[in-house]
Design brief:
The structure holds two protein chains of two kinds. By secondary structure, chain A is α/β, with parallel strands linked by helices. Chain A has four helices and six strands, in the order E-H-E-H-E-E-H-E-H-E. In chain A, the strands form two sheets. Chain A has a three-stranded parallel sheet with strand order 1-3-5. Chain B starts with a strand and ends with a helix. Classes of the chains: A alpha/beta, B alpha+beta.
């Protein structure tokens, strides 16, 4: 099993989808089939990055296990897993509004 | 030589509109003389949204290899502030309370990490809101990267110690929210309607868990009791901290791309982002 410390790849923050895609591009090229991803010292992950992480994990042919996740990071993953389908497209206006026309 | 008159106000949209009017004058000057002078001498008060807009405009002109010069404000306080934030071309300087302007083109991850590093270093006692800032910036930058087709974007964040206020701003020169909706066949009436629909959850992505950046920022902003300003193509939307929406029609398609600007008070206790989004 190959153990990867995320802190070596991301410093303390995982901000963008792109960074996660790059990370999995690298992981998927590794020889080892089993990968242990160590989240120790990762303090922040954005919603988009957490969503992309789960998406890429699902797509990957590797067996990925995640360890040492801090509570905030874990909460974000749980939140993303629980998200419902996106709303239907709407064209509504807010209830309390003031509209101004600015001629420039 | 066009002179910028910025109103002495705490209202971001008043200064944003003044900047947009000014940019129209500058564009005419640039077309006529093939060079431009940014006369900022009369600025007595500048909000981060204006320094962000001006930096972005100046960098755009520099990238086009056009000639430009800048007359700095006569006010020493304003000039010192601009120097502190690395105006106009950005810097990686570590200064208390201020995060320099950062421009990015195609190195978005690097730029975000630089800004996060500066926030960790420059914002004292930021434990309560550190993750909220990082969340907002991450989602905004991801939006730019995924949706805008930008060439150049600019980001900043400031903490005002006395007022305990946090200001965050991101601007890009991409397709804009109404432009993106149009491209994807999503109907809307006015440009401000498209912006409003985006923050209410309308998405151009049809995949579960995607296209929620702005709507989640809107929810977090409500939780922080902050003020959210979005200017995109010919429309603008301001959500005040009492929840009221002000919508604007900006004639002449005055902004290329999108500006998102938030301000909120330092929360009393640590923000758990997932509770609000």
């Amino acid at each position: 099993m190959k153990k990867i410390k995320l802190i070596d790849k991301f410093e303390e923050n995982i901000a963008t989808r792109e960074s996660v895609v790059d990370f999995f591009r690298w992981i998927n090229k590794l020889v080892s089939k089993d990968i242990m991803v160590d989240f120790n010292e990762i303090e922040f992950i954005s919603r988009s990055a957490a969503h992309e992480y789960l998406r890429q994990s699902k797509k990957s042919k590797k067996n990925i296990s995640n360890v040492n996740m801090g509570s905030e990071v874990e909460n974000m993953f749980e939140y993303v897993k629980s998200e419902k389908d996106i709303k239907k497209k709407s064209n509504k206006s807010p209830s309390q509004i003031k509209i101004s026309t600015i001629c420039i | 030589m066009a002179l910028l008159n910025l109103p002495d106000t705490q209202e971001p949209m008043d200064q944003v509109i003044a900047c947009l009017k000014y940019f129209n004058e500058l564009d005419l000057e640039l077309k006529k003389y093939n060079k431009v002078v940014f006369d900022l001498s009369k600025i007595r008060w500048i909000l981060p949204c204006s320094s962000l807009l001006l930096s972005h405009k100046i960098e755009n002109i520099r990238l086009q290899k056009k000639n430009f010069s800048i007359v700095l404000p006569e006010s020493k306080a304003v000039t010192n502030h601009l120097k502190q934030i690395g105006f106009p071309l950005g810097s990686k300087r570590k200064e208390d309370r201020c995060s320099p302007i950062i421009h990015f083109m195609h190195h978005v991850n690097e730029s975000v990490n630089e800004l996060f590093d500066l926030i960790d270093h420059n914002f004292p006692d930021s434990e309560e809101y550190n993750n909220a800032i990082k969340y907002i910036l991450s989602e905004l930058v991801t939006n730019i990267e995924e949706h805008s087709g930008y060439k150049h974007a600019t980001i900043t964040a400031q903490y005002y110690k006395t007022k305990k206020m946090i200001d965050i701003g991101v601007i890009d020169d991409g397709i804009s929210i109404p432009g993106r909706f149009r491209k994807k066949g999503i109907k809307f009436n006015e440009d401000y309607t498209a912006i409003n629909n985006a923050i209410e959850g309308t998405s151009t992505k049809n995949e579960r868990g995607r296209g929620r950046g702005l709507s989640s920022i809107n929810k977090l902003n409500k939780g922080l009791k902050g003020e959210l300003n979005i200017v995109s193509r010919g429309g603008a939307l301001v959500i005040k901290n009492d929840g009221k929406h002000n919508l604007y029609i900006l004639e002449n398609n005055s902004i290329k791309g999108t500006l998102v600007y938030l301000k909120f008070h330092k929360p009393a206790k640590k923000i758990e982002v997932v509770k609000y989004i």
